[in-house]
Amino acid sequence: MNSNDLMPAVGSAAAAVDETALLGALRRGEEWAFEALVRVYGGRLLAVARRICGNEEDARDALQSAYLSAFRSVERFEGSCQLSTWLHRIVVNMALMRLRTRRRKPEEQMDTLLPAFQEDGHHVEQFSEWAMPADVLLERADARAAVRSCIAQLPDAYRQVLLLRDIEELSTDEVARMLGATPTAVKVRLHRARQALSTLLRREFAR
Amino acid sequence: MTCREFAEFLDGYVGGELPSAVRSAFEHHLALCVNCVRYLDHYRLSIELGRRAFEPSDGEIPADVPADLVRAICTALRSPSA
After folding, report:
1. How far is CA A119 from CA A98, A112, A116, A123, B4, in A?
2. Is B41 an 8 Å CB contact of chain A?
3. What is the ipTM score, two decimals?
4. Which residues numbered 74-93 in A keep a CB inside 8 Å of some CB on B?
5. A110-205, what's its fold?
6. Choices 1.10.10.10, 2.40.50.40, 3.30.360.10, 1.10.1740.10: CATH for A3-101
7. Chain A residues within 8 A of B18 when measuring between CB atoms
8. What confidence tens digit (pLDDT) does each residue in A137-173 have?
């Protein structure tokens, strides 16, 4: 058997892969299965690593480390989730480890991105409507790039939580375990990250 | 409820996690304060924009993993230390 036998057509979605057959071959140590695992899921997983690491070199290193870790531990994979979900978590963990070893870039102070209030509790700022609805904005490549750029400007601790919860769609408990934080701390950080992103997007898109 | 308190409860409201008494106070404030209506709109839009900014565009197929990276991973796997 070769990797193409697992995929009905070249370029088909990873969801179409026969994970049971692939897992069996991986556990038997069949070399073609390891390469298939890289080819089938690698593109999407590299995109995940890029989002978290923010640069190509770290993303590639994280992906390679993740695959090596997965190959070493495939015997212990219990099948309680999809193979793709299991790989996704390993890649996220490896990408976070790469981030921790990297020197931090200068970050905008979080205080300047959170809402300010008057003594009586009213907002200092008067908010206006955005120039375009979200659906229209998202049709535009430049607007999507601007959103990604705004997320990249968030301080690391907040950007990580926003990416893991809102974009990678991991649960609060999973994120807490990955970051060594309490679920409450993750919730607080996510709320602040969303508020900060809202401030940055307002600078881009408000009338 | 003040605008400051309203902002603190935003994530709970969006996530449907507020106790009913707090939700009532939140919605009462929402009915009276145009500025907070807009702030809530911005908050929701930010979540939606963030989620969708990384999605592939219509018809765009996610890129394959580069061939040199596939080779590097497979080579590392075959090495005795793997």
Report:
1. 43, 18, 10, 9, 10
2. yes
3. 0.85
4. none
5. Arc Repressor Mutant, subunit A (1.10.10)
6. 1.10.1740.10
7. none
8. 878 888 888 999 999 999 988 999 999 999 999 999 9
